[in-house]
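User: Predict the structure for this protein chain, please.
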Amino acid sequence: MALSDVQLRSLKPSSTTRKISDGGGLFVQVTPSGSKLWRLAYRYDGKQKLLAFGSYPAVSLADARTRRDNAKRLLASGIDPSSHAKAEKAARRAAVEDTFQAVADEFLGKVEREGKADATLKKKRWLIGLAAADIGRQPISDISAADVLAPLRRVEALGNYETARRLRAVVSQVFRYAIAISKATNDPTFGLRGALVAPKVTNRAALTDWPNFAGLLRAIWCYEGTVETRAALKLMALLYPRPGELRQAEWKEFDLNDATWTIPESRSKMRRPHCKPLPAPALEVLRGLKEHTGTRRLAFPSIQSPERPLSENTMNAALRRMGFSQTEATSHGFRATASTLLNESGMWSPDAIEAELGHVGADEVRRAYHRARYWEERVKMAEWWGAAILSNSRGRVIDAGKS
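Assistant: Here is the predicted structure, written as structure tokens:
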């Protein structure tokens, strides 16, 4: 017999739970505490199941009957109403919890746990922040290519084409992570690759012939700046590391007795320790520097604070003061110079040069193979390069590849 609102209001609790039917499997469950709970009993796939609709009077009699009828329609279509209700609940939760910003924060946490460099994390956070203003609060599963294009176009409008390209790449990383953890099914950035303005590629400024490079070396060896800046520029020429690897170097990384410098994986771009041989001229520079900064943690501390490293701007500013424009020489350009001149010399295997530059692939077997096979050659190459640098810095302009 169908229920009425009068009957529902008059239902009183008892010592046991009671069930009062409304028909079609719908009933109200009256608990000893006085709660009146709507339930639907049904069978699916041969199993008896129960679906909750909430409590009366929050869910009215009319609403409960509507929900029963909707559930019956799902059953007629071969859909389990309970599974359908759970899916809808998950979708509602995702709309609130699984936003682009929330998933991006999870992704950044993963990147941090993987031990990526602070500079890498800072750049990714900054780029994600550029997109978050537009899509940060949207459920990540609902975001379309058009949604992502909006922040990309805004960055492009400022003429920052390279930033737009990197922004698309980082947003893509967030979506690929979302797919991996089942919070998204596709990466909408894939179709945007051809939509962005291609940035003009410019090579890092570098002097790649011995006569011009010799002029730079003479200027560095005569430079009258701070001890730390002079030493850093000399070592950039002698060792050609990435500027950040040298600027942030700590004294514990240098073994002056064994003539090695081990760059830890936390600062190595390839995310693994990188050991470099130290030629005699580099050892001389480091021993001189140690007399000034050897009691500190950082080998190249900033003038402003001993706990902060020398900045790359400091080195580049020194090059400008020596008369070299930013189109002629930069601190990063020493790597291109060394790579070019070492390869042109014809004396060293390309793989040994790549290993010294820290370009060897991350595969463990390949890494060990390179270190074992090329270490001796790298030591000889470092001494040869150091001698050539010292000769040219003293005014003996020679083509080291023909010496």
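The longest strand covers residues 47-56.
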